[in-house]
Amino acid sequence: MSDHPSPEAAVPEEPVSPSAVRVLVLNSGSSSVKYQLLDMRDGARLAVGLVERIGEGTSLLRHTVRTTGETRERSDSFPDHEAALKAMGEELAVDGLGLDSPELAAIGHRVVHGGRTFTEPTVIDAAVLAEIERLIPVAPLHNPANLTGIRTAMALRPDLPQIAVFDTAFHTTMPEAAARYAIDVATADEHRIRRYGFHGSSHAYVSRTTAGLLGKAPEEVNVIVLHLGNGASASAVRGGRCVDTSMGLTPLEGLVMGTRSGDVDPAVIFHLERVGDMSTDEIDTLLNKKSGLLGLCGDNDLREIERRIGEGDEKARLAFDIYIHRLKKYIGAYYAVLGRVDAVAFTAGVGENSDTVREAAIRGLEELGLAVDGELNAVRGGGPRLISPPYARVAVAVVPTDEELEIATQTYALAGRGGA
Questions:
Q1: Whose CA, among 12, 221, 330, 392, lies 20 to 30 Å from 284?
Q2: Marked catalytic residue, from 3, 80, 95, 167
């Protein structure tokens, strides 16, 4: 069955009030909810929090008021997401930021998979909910939890615009040559098998911010974005539009990650079934949760791996070398895809904080116009910055990602155009 036509992107029936300047961003997992409340006049965080272990007997809510730095923790029994979000609302109310505030303009929801249907942020209605549910087979771990959070928030504030921002949306601009797998077309279409990509909000934010660092508009710049965290992905962005990305049907494809293998020969699966007598579920667990850096050396934290390398640990060294080798391959491949590269941008936990990874990934690519300045690269923390020397033909940047701000910005823009 091929994808249905996109549900018409609804807009709020009436524009939000001029006094409504806040957006609540929700990221709902199967047993957790992360939230941030932002003031859209300047993008400032007013409060951030996490509710975890929902439905597990004793749950924990950790709430931080950004204006004062105060953090409160609350252990309680939150049997479901409704109880968790009500508790979140109570904590926000303590700070005068409650869900009933007239300053709350909209709620933005991170939704992992929008398939080919959702190419932009979308006001949630019954048709949108049905389509997100229809996509569960290609995102069985994420879309059900995202739906639960959405439905709970809609019940709590049915009068408020609820907007879905999709991880896959930024990558829907990929041409068919990049998005298609070379398998039977009818089979692929029937089962919606294609390369969707993930971390889209991060890639959108980082590519746009990198263009700003260069003093140019996104439409003028070609960027390779390297989102390196426990999950990792690369993207080739031409003029503000994604033309290729490393993750595929699922987040398993591509770079070596903390616990995911990234690219492997598909025949490995058949081999493990036939020779290793492993079930599909066992192989799924192996490739997603017991591979990557963890499978190679027993650690998925690059800080620990770098420490072990310093002590002469050969397993840690090999894991690091495999990680960097794969990263270099994607940089080179996306250089070829783009033809002209203006910048390579590192982001996310590893990309922002490991000068060792950044230096190793760029080392040897001088003929491509890439270089890293040792002193600039060694600087820790701070905002978006260039770490390449002035003579480098291609800029190398470190850009702290801000997926929540990206979601809030897209949410507020859509909520604010009601009645248009």
A1: 330
A2: 167
